[in-house]
Specification:
By secondary structure, the protein is an alpha+beta fold. It is 45% helix and 21% strand. The chain contains 8 helices and 9 strands. The strands form 3 sheets. A 5-stranded mixed beta sheet has the order 2-3-1-9-8. Strands 4-7 form a two-stranded antiparallel sheet. A two-stranded antiparallel sheet has the order 5-6. The longest helix is centred in the first third of the chain and has 25 residues. The radius of gyration is 23 Å and the shape is elongated. About 5% of the residues have low confidence.
Length: 199
């Protein structure tokens, strides 16, 4: 989740409705820019993560702004962004991911005796089909499953990369229930609205 918000009460004392509308427009423009970058940078396996992102307007009292995020259950986007500790993941989604990622590339392989390198079998470069193909997919998925159990997963930091590409200042906020980026929108607003003194 990425929050872009501006507290009108603290930062814009006595601003009129026209200025508040200009702030809202600038923050909306910022949210669209962040959204576009996140969609470009998000990793893709099944496409569910990219397709789940949305922009939601925040209007709570004197606070105006936008959230760019995803409602995917279980914090999936956060797990992809920040990584995970070692845990036992479900096997089937990993098997499906391997099947999609390596579908045309699953070939008969062997381990070279002296170097220990994985190389195509000398008997040919034939793409595996049927039961032998499924067996190889399950072996690769099993190795990934074991690695996640032992080491967890590495963060992809695609949202952080998006914010950095836009030159935005941000903080990582961790609570008991969530972790997200809180964007400092002041500089963006300053460069996109003229004639307003932002202290």
């Amino acid at each position: 989740m990425i929050n872009t918000r501006f507290d009108i009460k603290e930062k814009t004392v006595n601003y009129n409705e026209q200025i508040k509308n200009a702030l809202n427009y600038a923050l909306g423009e910022l949210a669209i820019n962040i959204y576009d970058k996140v969609i470009k940078n998000a990793p893709t396996a099944f496409g569910n993560l990219k397709a789940s992102f949305d922009i939601v307007k925040i209007s709570e009292g004197n606070l105006i702004g936008y959230k760019v995020g995803t409602p995917l259950e279980g914090g999936y986007a956060s797990y992809v962004e920040f990584g995970t500790r070692p845990h036992t993941p479900p096997f089937e989604p990993i098997r499906q991911w391997v099947e999609i990622k390596v579908q045309p590339h699953v070939k008969a392989v062997a381990v070279e005796y002296k170097s220990g390198k994985v190389v195509p079998k000398k008997s040919g470069h034939k793409v595996l089909k049927g039961a032998s193909r499924e067996s190889e997919i399950r072996k690769v998925a099993g190795a990934i499953w074991q690695s996640i159990r032992r080491h967890g997963t590495k963060g992809q930091y695609y949202m952080m990369q998006s914010l950095m590409e836009l030159g935005l200042k941000f903080n990582v906020v961790k609570t008991n229930t969530e972790i997200y980026y809180d964007v400092d929108a002041i500089d963006w607003v300053r460069t996109h609205i003229t004639g307003i003194n932002m202290q």
